[in-house]
Amino acid sequence: MIFPTSRATGMSRAAIAVLVAAWLASFLVGTARPADAADLSQFNPGNIISDGVFFNPYTMTEAEIQTFLNVRGGPCAAGSTCLKSYVDTMPAKAADSFCGAYPASGAEPASRIIYRVANACGINPQVLLVMLQKEQGLVTSRSPSATAYRSAMGFGCPDTAACDVSFYGFANQVYNAARQFQVYANSGRFTWVKVGQSNQIRYHPNAACGTGAVFIANKATAGLYYYTPYQPNQTALNAGYGTGDACSSYGNRNFYQYFTDWFGGTQSSASLVQVPGRPEVWLTVGSAKHHVPDGTELNVFASRLGWVRPAAASYVDSLVTAAPARRYVHDPRTGTLYLLQPDGTKHRFPDAATISAYGYDFGSYVNISANQADAFPTGPDVGTFFRVEDAPEVYLLADGRKRYVTSPAAYLDASAGKNSYVASMSAAGAAKVPVGPALLPRHSLVRETSGGSVYLTLADGGLLHIPSFGLAADAGRRDYVVVPDGTLASSPVREGTLSPFLRCGTTVYLVAGGTLRPVTGTATGGLTPLQLPEAACADMPRSSSTVAAPFLVQVPGRGEVYVLEAQQLHHVRSYDRLLQLSGGAAPRFVSWSSETANGVGVGAPELAAGSYVQFSGEAEVYQGDGRQIRHVTSYDALVRSNGGRVPTIERLPVAQKPYYTVGSPIS
Questions:
Q1: What backbone torsions phi and psi does residue 163 show, to the nearest 5 degrees?
Q2: Into how many domains does the chain fold?
Q3: How far is CA 78 from CA 66, 93, 132, 137, in A?
Q4: Could you read off the pLDDT of 129-168 as tens digits, one per residue?
């Protein structure tokens, strides 16, 4: 059991064929495909194979074992019987504390014997296949000898004596070797290779080759040393499948190498296991098991650790029951605390406050193994944004409350324009977080699905009712979002409504052209500014240029110019009057939407000099000039004042008459 395998190290056609067959077999039997030969730098003499892998009898069905033998064995030499075609009979085996009963059988194929023994004795059938290969090369041999079948597992064949004839026969060998590993693990009689302690393990039957200290991690590794009591020296490991030096032994090296090449690794035990017939699913970590409480947590772990695999009750029951499996985990190598995500990534918790915000007690993490931690790629740190499980709604954690993020714009506002990570929080964790006001986009308009009111979002989180979309646009707010009913319930609504003038803190602004323009002086055209705290206006766009009364207004797309006075707009009908209103300087205009202008209302016009008006319901005719009107007392005076011609007389509503100042009459 210490001699190297005869497998060639060169890449002959036969060797290439073997590799191709190995690649095919990895798919046919549902095992992981090894990328290359095992990396023996990863060989750990103290943990050659995990207990979870070694004692799991459910890794392959009988059909999968047969397919594996067909592919691995290749074509058999003429006149020989290869393992894929070999049959044997099994004498009756009574059940005992190490194996279940195996009734006497007629001729059975090797695949069935391996499958039935694995299940009877609770040993991974992959282990039995590897043992058959490392001891006699039976899996890949094209012309196996009778001796190879007679001592198929090397059981009862010590390195220093002849084989025990009472264990001859293929079926007998497979059964007794499998049973013996359970004896090693559970009888209490084998104690000189101590699990959980450092042991001196020899390198070779020749005592002169010396020993090396090995910390034995588990029962399976201890069992391999009882079976083959030597560890490979560095020369044996450096040789790969080849020959080392005079002090090299190969049994445990070859076991590790074949298992890794064929089945993807000796430590790749199913992390998620279930005893057939029992409802509980467990996350196994070393010698501990963690109950997986629900399907959501299960899917998170399974995203990288693989789906639930059946496991022997004896193995699962031997594990210490620890805290339930949750996605809040701890990497013991670095002390880092992570949140596992359904997409198969892990994300570092930056501080204890974030852990608490996600609904976890600081010390309630699950210690996962290094291999399990490394299976989850590392993503960005856990931040303040989250969604509940895989629901589309995004929330912000702020001041101990969860705030519904109503739109991508709101998300970008809250994340300062950065693409912050949005984590998935468990439903149980999210239920513990109280609800805060919805996070609404800045510079936006919002209404609920069934609501009629449209609101402007303020910088302090409040809402302000708007009378028109046009006035909102004049204030620089054009984006519009509709949110589900009830979203705005926690958001405070300011009294009043958006108006053309706002007083933010102590400064008065004119709302025009998409900005807030500071007003110098106290005049506001008779309109009362809406008072808002400075904090509410903080994010509104503001112009550095000031305006002052009189306010000359234009509506985009129209040629008319209006002056705001006495709470209304008044059409300025001449350029001379514009110059008068501007104090002789070039006129400066502000822009209002038609909706804003209509909301303020249009009153009496600013009359062109020398124009004539008459008010409805009255006979008097007046000559106008801006806001002044003069009564023309007679027809002769009317004609003379217009250069001897009868003028055109405009009729205005009598309600507009008070806007004008009546000057001296024209007689």
A1: -70, 150
A2: 3
A3: 20, 35, 22, 18
A4: 999 999 999 999 999 999 999 999 999 888 777 888 889 9
Q: In the structure encoding, which two tokens stand for residue 120, read together?
A: 């009877």
Q: Are 46 and 96 in contact (CB under 8 A)?
A: no
* pLDDT reported for residue 37: 65
Reported as half-sphere exposure (CB side, CA atoms, 13 A), residue 12 has a value of 6
Q: Is residue 449 domain-resident?
A: no
49 domain-assigned = no
Q: 178 and 64 in one domain?
A: yes
Instruction: State how far Cα 348 lies from the chain centre.
Output: 12
Residue type, 187: S
Supply the DSSP string of 430-452, one letter for each residue: HHTSPB---BPPTTEEEEETT--
Nearest to 154 by CA among 314, 5, 312, 315: 5
Over residues 351-402, the pLDDT tens digits come to: 999 999 888 999 999 998 877 898 899 999 999 999 998 788 899 998 888 8
Measured CA to CA, the distance from residue 239 to residue 245 in angstroms comes to 9
Three-state DSSP state, 304: helix
Tell me, yes or no, whether 173 and 67 share the same domain: yes
pLDDT score recorded for residue 269: 60
User: Which tokens sit at 486?
Assistant: 């009830």
Note whether 133 and 174 are within 8 A (CB): no
Indicate the SS3 state at residue 34: coil
Range of the domain at 651: 607-662
Q: What is the DSSP code string of 178-235?
A: HHHHHHHHHSS---SS-TTSEEEEESSSSGGG-EEEEE--SHHHHHHHHHS-B---HH
Amino acid type, 143: S
Q: Pick from 522, 533, 523: which is nearest to 495 by CA?
A: 533
Same domain for 277 and 165: no
The 10s digit of each residue's pLDDT in 519-542 is 999 999 999 999 999 999 988 899
Q: Are 581 and 481 in contact (CB under 8 A)?
A: no
The DSSP result for 507-537, as a single string, is EEEEEETTEEEEBPSS--TTPPPEEE-HHHH
In angstroms, how far is CA 303 from the centroid of its own chain?
12
- Domain stops at, among 148, 182, 216: 182
Residue 476 resides in a domain: no
Which strand (E) or helix (H) includes residue 18?
helix 13-28
**pLDDT tens-digit series, residues 439-467:** 888 778 999 999 889 999 998 888 999 99
Whether residue 177 is found in the same domain as residue 277: no
Respond yes or no on whether the N-terminal peptide bond of residue 550 is cis (omega within 30° of 0). yes
Calculate helix-pair angle for 170-186, 219-227, nearest 10 degrees: 130
Closest CA to 203 of 195, 214, 192: 214
Q: Is residue 242 part of a domain?
A: no
User: Residue 429: its pLDDT value, please?
Assistant: 86
Of the candidates 356, 382, 408, which is a domain's last residue?
382
* One domain, residues 178 and 280: no
Task: Say which residue the tokens 């007690």 belong to.
Answer: 361
How far is 193 from 226, CA to CA, in rounded Å?
8
Counting residues of the chain whose pLDDT is more than 90, the rounded percentage is 67
Domain shared by 175 and 285, yes or no: no
